[in-house]
Amino acid sequence: MNLSSLGALPFLWMGWSFLYPHVGFCEGAPFKQEDGITSNAHRQSCWETEEFTVQQECTRCDDYTKKTESECTFSGFVEKIKCKHSGQVEYRSCRSAAQEELKFWKFEGGMLSFGTVFAVLVLFRQRTLDRRAEYKVLQQIEAI
């Protein structure tokens, strides 16, 4: 059994299943569930209704805070905000620009890698087909 009879799909799948846990292309924040039901447990934050200033830029939450604070569980980053009218200081979930840039370059690197692998596979397949065609032509010439 050779590579051309199996096809490249099983090998690509094995490669992807090996790389996926280590690269982490799909690590994103979970979706917020908003079902439209209002309850007393969910209060509206002051930054949703009034103007605010950012007192501390987007920073990473530590492991304990990620598990205890609801703002940290969404994205893993929070920023400190002070509302202008009420004067309340609150934290809200945010996305780190550096983290987003890192995810972008991981994606670009992955796509470059996959493109290279597929280009090599195409070259390999083309050479195999050329050899087969050359062999058939030689057989036809010998038959004459």
From TrEMBL:
It comes from the Eukaryota. InterPro entries: JTB. Keywords: Signal. It holds the Pfam family JTB. The keyword Signal applies. Residues 1-28 form the signal peptide. This is JTB protein. The lineage of its organism: Eukaryota, Metazoa, Chordata, Craniata, Vertebrata.
